[in-house]
Design a protein that fits this description.
Blueprint lengths: L1 E4 L4 H8 L7 E3 L17 H16 L3 E10 L6 E2 L12 H12 L6 E12 L2 E13 L15 E3 L11 H7 L1 H14 L1
Parallel strand pairs: 1-2, 1-3
Antiparallel strand pairs: 3-4, 3-5, 5-6, 6-7
């Protein structure tokens, strides 16, 4: 089976490829000559994932899936949420985003947060969604060199290190994206 993963994020592609069995071949946007920015104009994580999957199906005709992920911080009423990638501005800089979030939380003792990934699958002219959530806390400072995005400041529940201090296999086994991808793979294999 061949299916398009609608992302230009090479880190996400690497994470998902590690989770997908060999009988499912992932095609990237580059593989289908999609070089434009796919719109993400919805106000929910689910909405953006669906919009991206529908865009590829409508413009390129491929069965595909797309994901959107957001970091939801309790004390900030779920922010940055759907705006996680551009929290500190349109430059979409991970360090700027983390610096802004740490400054906003300052010494707040409630640092509960969760990562949420929604995958929208557009296959056989039907839409399916899968959601993965990983609860945790925002650390006081950045720690670790692995991963991407907010990984250096997110510590999953029941662990004493951040996503950025974990190897990819551990992160995928407990993380939000891994949970959503596992649901996707189970569906594709059924």
């Amino acid at each position: 089976m061949e299916i398009v993963f609608a992302t230009n994020n090479l880190n996400k592609l690497k994470e998902v490829q590690a989770l997908v069995p060999k009988n499912i071949k992932l095609l990237s946007l580059k593989d289908i000559n999609c070089n434009e920015d796919i719109p993400e104009t919805q106000d929910t994580i689910e909405g953006n994932a669906i919009q991206k999957a529908n865009y590829i199906k409508d413009h390129y005709g491929y069965d595909c899936f797309a994901d959107d992920t957001g970091l939801e911080v309790s004390v900030l009423n779920g922010a940055p949420g759907v705006y996680s990638a551009r929290y500190a501005g349109e430059q979409r800089d991970a360090n700027d985003n983390m610096t802004k979030l740490l400054k906003e939380l300052d010494q707040n003792t409630n640092r509960q947060a969760q990562f949420k990934t929604v995958i929208a699958l557009q296959i056989n002219n039907m839409l399916h969604t899968f959601t993965g959530i990983c609860e945790g806390t925002i650390t006081l400072q950045k720690s670790g060199e692995q991963g991407f995005g907010y990984d250096p400041i997110f510590q999953p529940k029941d662990y004493d290190k951040t996503f950025a201090e974990m190897d990819l296999a551990l992160k995928n086994s407990i993380g939000h994206r891994g949970k959503a991808v596992n649901q996707l793979v189970d569906f594709l294999n059924s």
